[in-house]
Amino acid sequence: MTDPIKAHGKEANETDEAIGRERTAWERIDAIETDESKAYFSRELLIWYDRSKRDLPWRRHRDPYFIWVSEIMLQQTRVDTVIPYFHRFIERFPTIRELAEAPQEDVVKMWEGLGYYSRARNLQAAAQQIVELHDGQMPSEREHVFALKGVGPYTAGAILSIAFNRPEPAVDGNVMRVLSRYFLIEDDIAKPKTRIGMEKIIPGLIPEGRASDFNQALMELGALICTPKSPHCLICPVMEHCRGRIEGMERDLPVKTKAKKPRPEQRLAVLLEGAGEREGRVLVRRRPRTGLLAGMWELPHIAADSAPEAQDLGLEVGQLEELLEDLGLSWSPMSPYMTAEHTFSHIHWTMRVLTAREQPEVLAQLAAESGVPYEVAVPEAAAEALEADEAGTGAEVEWRWIAEADMREIAFPNLFLNILNRYFGEAKQS
DNA sequence: AATACGGGGTC
DNA sequence: GACCCAGTATT
């Protein structure tokens, strides 16, 4: 049996004796099998949970579908953020089968603003898997659950334990924080190895028949009591045997390597107002199907080099204008509309938005001269311009003139949602 | 093992 | 600002 944790522990121990270092945390925890602190932990945690658990929408039924949807939504996302999304999503897609059969656009639209949109696409793909392979019922075997798109070690464990009461570990950020403090584990929780070590501890902690409550209790403790910055040790149900607290280390745990800062990117967007038969509409495009914000709609924009303070954007505005020219458009002079900041996990955008008004009469004239029809779609030149913008392959980019009402149909990332809502809001004023 | 992938709340 | 959140997929 190749147990990486134990193997590592033993190996360390042989040299440790010479160096005089302590055994690893994993060995120590393993050794306290008979210790009161494990049984105490599980017992007190469950007593506390039974008394203090929150009334959350997905806790009102033990429907594996509800549990699953909530767990996907809760990935890297706070409970308070998820609740309204969960209600809307379940109302729109009440069953796995209805989710599987819906247009993908609808699923992503329901996810709009929640972020990590591959979660939505994977969720639907997995629903289709379940319909095809399991007759529309969430499977209860580990291998089948784990095989679902978008379901990793945490979510598989969460579904199996919470929905089916199987004694499987479900180790998320909360659980790692709680365990690292209670057992004084100083391993870096950013490393997958540490999560695996935690997963090995859990089965030995789950009281018979209480897997569902136990795993939820562990996360609930992390969310309500054993919080990241300043844990509420004084009201913690397991404070008595918490080694982190006893050693005064609770604020130093868990150990976690810092994330890199997002790289700054300057971008220049255009909010082009339609005229003539496109009066009241705005030009938008769809992002490529892969990569950042895959398949979502946005205002056209390009990478800009100049610093945010730079006044002279002549060159870059020129590039933006080329993009529109390639669409066969003409417009009034561009003027600054607003600047928006938006931070992703790995990129920080400073998006300067210019506005201009389409001039179809000029266009019509140009079209007559050049022989290009009035309703120009997307010529190859535009695709190339986008390619140069590294937005993707460019070839598949779609364009649309949208009215305010169209925003109910298609999904935008929050950055553009904010800009467009502001724009349409102002348009109604005047 | 490292990086891509959103968005927002909190101290 | 920095950190973190009921993480997963891809490289």
Automatic annotation (TrEMBL):
<dbReference type="GO" id="GO:0032357">
    <property type="term" value="F:oxidized purine DNA binding"/>
</dbReference>
<feature type="domain" description="HhH-GPD">
    <location>
        <begin position="73"/>
        <end position="224"/>
    </location>
</feature>
<dbReference type="Pfam" id="PF14815">
    <property type="entry name" value="NUDIX_4"/>
</dbReference>
<keyword id="KW-0234">DNA repair</keyword>
<dbReference type="InterPro" id="IPR005760">
    <property type="entry name" value="A/G_AdeGlyc_MutY"/>
</dbReference>
<keyword id="KW-0227">DNA damage</keyword>
<protein>
    <recommendedName>
        <fullName>Adenine DNA glycosylase</fullName>
        <ecNumber>3.2.2.31</ecNumber>
    </recommendedName>
</protein>
<keyword id="KW-0378">Hydrolase</keyword>
<dbReference type="InterPro" id="IPR044298">
    <property type="entry name" value="MIG/MutY"/>
</dbReference>
<dbReference type="InterPro" id="IPR003265">
    <property type="entry name" value="HhH-GPD_domain"/>
</dbReference>
<dbReference type="Pfam" id="PF10576">
    <property type="entry name" value="EndIII_4Fe-2S"/>
</dbReference>
<dbReference type="InterPro" id="IPR003651">
    <property type="entry name" value="Endonuclease3_FeS-loop_motif"/>
</dbReference>
<keyword id="KW-0004">4Fe-4S</keyword>
<dbReference type="InterPro" id="IPR015797">
    <property type="entry name" value="NUDIX_hydrolase-like_dom_sf"/>
</dbReference>
<keyword id="KW-0408">Iron</keyword>
<dbReference type="GO" id="GO:0006298">
    <property type="term" value="P:mismatch repair"/>
</dbReference>
<dbReference type="InterPro" id="IPR011257">
    <property type="entry name" value="DNA_glycosylase"/>
</dbReference>
<dbReference type="InterPro" id="IPR023170">
    <property type="entry name" value="HhH_base_excis_C"/>
</dbReference>
<dbReference type="GO" id="GO:0035485">
    <property type="term" value="F:adenine/guanine mispair binding"/>
</dbReference>
<dbReference type="GO" id="GO:0000701">
    <property type="term" value="F:purine-specific mismatch base pair DNA N-glycosylase activity"/>
</dbReference>
<comment type="similarity">
    <text>Belongs to the Nth/MutY family.</text>
</comment>
<keyword id="KW-0326">Glycosidase</keyword>
<keyword id="KW-0479">Metal-binding</keyword>
<dbReference type="InterPro" id="IPR029119">
    <property type="entry name" value="MutY_C"/>
</dbReference>
<keyword id="KW-0411">Iron-sulfur</keyword>
<dbReference type="Pfam" id="PF00730">
    <property type="entry name" value="HhH-GPD"/>
</dbReference>
<comment type="function">
    <text>Adenine glycosylase active on G-A mispairs. MutY also corrects error-prone DNA synthesis past GO lesions which are due to the oxidatively damaged form of guanine: 7,8-dihydro-8-oxoguanine (8-oxo-dGTP).</text>
</comment>
<dbReference type="GO" id="GO:0046872">
    <property type="term" value="F:metal ion binding"/>
</dbReference>
<dbReference type="GO" id="GO:0006284">
    <property type="term" value="P:base-excision repair"/>
</dbReference>
<dbReference type="GO" id="GO:0051539">
    <property type="term" value="F:4 iron, 4 sulfur cluster binding"/>
</dbReference>
<dbReference type="GO" id="GO:0034039">
    <property type="term" value="F:8-oxo-7,8-dihydroguanine DNA N-glycosylase activity"/>
</dbReference>
